[in-house]
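Saturday, quiet lab. Running sequence design on the structure tokens for the scaffold JK sent over.
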């Protein structure tokens, strides 16, 4: 789940890192060593007591669905997926809800996305939140190597995004610190690029605590290495400006051009404008060197 936003070229100084911003919530002890492999932005000395209930989201599950014609979770899941593949998402709701109530991650994920996007159902962010919450509550210790890991990681990202703004007229309030916890877990344990981008954005913009462009650049870089469009754009901007990192204008231009190649012209107008503005400010030599770097990259030369 990626959020587009307008950007500027104003330079900002490097602010002191705020340990409170990325204070980890209690994690399951068995996951800590794995999570720390990716936790590049974790300041030294941040140690906490670990608790197996760290990510329990206090939300009631969706109302139960009568078993009816569904003999098993597998059968109901197949029925829901068949309805989706045939272009009838409305008919997928009942079988997917049954499977979701029985703890099937794929069904919970599909339902969450349907309610989030209003696909075949009336858009309902709170119902989406409930379904994503079931995944987080039951699967927070899912192995990163599991086929279901991507869905679990994206459930963390979805919940984090909801906590950034809150959901009107529900018990889900705006809680950026909670959002940071969700993003940090998915970014570090699951190496999820969307979470890494969101965490970098919060650090760069000072959403919780002081701005920290140096740490933001590290998270943007992790996401950019996976080809994340928005992370490429933001990191390219930082390299072009020398914001939190040594200035490398040609490489920054190259990254912004890579982002432009992926950007949706209607949804991601800010990415295109960012590249255009940078090219206007760059020198002729910087533009030429950027093109040379891009050509080398296309040939697989780093």
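Result came back. Writing it out in full:
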């Amino acid at each position: 789940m990626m959020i587009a936003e307008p950007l500027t070229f104003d330079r900002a100084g490097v602010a002191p890192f705020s340990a409170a911003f990325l204070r980890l919530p209690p994690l399951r002890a068995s996951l800590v060593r794995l999570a720390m492999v990716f936790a590049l932005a974790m300041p030294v000395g941040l140690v906490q007591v670990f608790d197996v209930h760290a990510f329990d989201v206090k939300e009631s599950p969706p109302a139960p669905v009568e078993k009816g014609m569904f003999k098993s979770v597998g059968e109901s899941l197949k029925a829901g997926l068949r309805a989706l593949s045939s272009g009838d998402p409305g008919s997928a709701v009942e079988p997917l809800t049954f499977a979701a109530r029985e703890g099937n991650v794929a069904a919970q994920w599909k339902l969450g996305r349907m309610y989030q996007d209003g696909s075949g159902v009336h858009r309902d962010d709170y119902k989406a939140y409930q379904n994503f919450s079931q995944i987080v509550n039951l699967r927070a210790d899912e192995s990163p190597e599991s086929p279901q890991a991507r869905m679990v990681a994206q459930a963390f990202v979805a919940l984090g995004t909801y906590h950034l703004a809150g959901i009107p007229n529900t018990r889900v309030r705006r809680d950026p610190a909670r959002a940071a916890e969700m993003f940090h877990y998915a970014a570090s344990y699951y190496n999820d690029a969307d979470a890494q981008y969101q965490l970098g954005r919060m650090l760069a913009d000072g959403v919780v605590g002081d701005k920290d462009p140096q740490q933001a650049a590290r998270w943007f870089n992790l996401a950019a290495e996976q080809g994340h469009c928005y992370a490429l754009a933001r990191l390219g901007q930082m390299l072009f400006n020398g914001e939190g990192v040594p200035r490398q204008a040609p490489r920054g231009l190259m990254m912004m051009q890579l982002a432009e190649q992926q950007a949706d012209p209607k949804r991601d107008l800010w990415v295109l404008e960012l590249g255009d503005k940078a090219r206007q400010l760059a020198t002729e030599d910087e533009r030429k060197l950027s093109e040379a770097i891009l050509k080398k990259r296309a040939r697989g030369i780093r």
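Notes for JK: Residues 106 and 273 are 37 Å apart (CA to CA). Residues 1-53 have pLDDT under 50 and may be disordered. Ask whether to fix the surface positions before the next round.
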